[in-house]
Write a structure and sequence with these properties.
The protein has about 300 residues and is an all-alpha fold. It has helices spanning about 1-5, 10-20, 30, 35-50, 60-85, 90-100, 100-120, 125-145, 155-175, 185-190, 190-215, 220-245, 260-280, 285-295, 300-305.
């Protein structure tokens, strides 16, 4: 600690201030530990598998997905603290990862080795072609994280789009790979994947827009940020409602309808829209947790349909 104070006095003061801050509430722990994103991924993997009628879907795939998502999210947060250690955009999760950096590093190494071992030993060979696409998306995301400007006035929409696409593709591919008569192109063109990818992109962008609006004293900027989220969410919700009533895919049976899935997309969009309209009532930390819940709660709508 004394060395840090000599080399980075400003950083030392900030760290000390965080250390002396009150204990964080228990409901914030999933966000601090980066467990929120793996939970969302595992829930939606199950929804994809049920919607696409995957007859054989081994349980270890859920473990692999959860570990992989956790490794990527922790890596992203550690990278943020390493590149922009004095950024005013730091949130509680950044402070937490900074303080426990060594433990998180050990954790992602162990989790990464475990996930890779299960993929090599248990996953079908077809997964490797999907992984090429996923690795390209992840590489693009981290490249933007490294080279993007850390300016507080900017909203990284391009990075958010890549992040949402990578998250959605990585989740969906773990179910789609077990549909042996279809390939990557079918996944990329499926309405389920596109809908979920858009929902993920808007979820990530929502947090940035809320933070940007709170920092700006200009009411026109606040209004523009609200519209930038309200309009896409409304369009996504409308599209999901429309697709819920479309004719079933030729390969689907009456028990494998996409209708529950698109109602889940509609629910997620509606919940994010409600948060956007009532965000003034919540702190930014609370909004982050609620935004994650907005992607988990739609599973209740999905399971309310008979046969799911």
């Amino acid at each position: 600690m004394s060395i840090e104070r000599l080399r980075y006095p400003a950083l030392s003061g900030m760290v000390c201030a965080v250390t002396s801050a009150p204990r964080k509430p228990f409901w914030l722990l999933p966000n601090l530990l980066s467990l929120d994103a793996p939970l969302v991924a595992v829930v939606w993997l199950y929804l994809f598998a049920k919607t696409w009628g995957v007859n054989y879907h081994p349980g270890h795939e859920y473990v692999v997905l959860g570990l992989a998502v956790w490794v990527l999210y922790v890596g992203d947060r550690l990278l943020d603290t390493a590149l922009h250690g004095d950024s005013p955009q730091w949130q509680a999760r950044h402070h937490f990862h900074r303080r426990h950096r060594r433990k998180f590093l050990y954790g992602i190494v162990i989790a990464g080795i475990a996930a890779l071992t299960m993929v090599l030993l248990k996953s079908p060979m077809a997964i490797y072609s999907y992984l090429i696409v996923e690795l390209a998306l992840v590489a693009g995301f981290f490249a933007m994280a490294v080279f993007a400007s850390p300016g507080v006035a900017e909203i990284p929409f391009a990075k958010n789009i890549l992040g949402g696409a990578a998250f959605a593709f990585g989740t969906a591919m773990v179910a789609h790979v077990y549909l042996y008569d279809r390939g990557i192109r079918d996944l990329l063109l499926s309405r389920e994947f596109i809908g979920f990818a858009l929902l993920c992109m808007l979820n990530i962008s929502a947090i940035d827009l809320w933070e940007h609006a709170e920092r700006s004293p200009d009411p026109e900027v606040k209004a523009a940020d609200e519209l930038a989220l309200t309009l896409p969410l409304a369009l996504l919700g409308t599209a999901a409602f429309f697709f819920a009533w479309q004719v079933q895919e030729p390969w689907q049976t009456s028990q494998q309808s996409s209708r529950p899935f698109f109602y889940a997309i509609l629910t997620g969009a509606a919940l994010l829209l409600m948060l956007n309209q009532t965000r003034a009532r919540f702190s930014l930390e609370s909004l982050r947790v609620l935004a994650d819940l907005a992607l988990v709660a739609p599973a209740l709508v999905f399971f309310s349909f008979p046969g799911t």
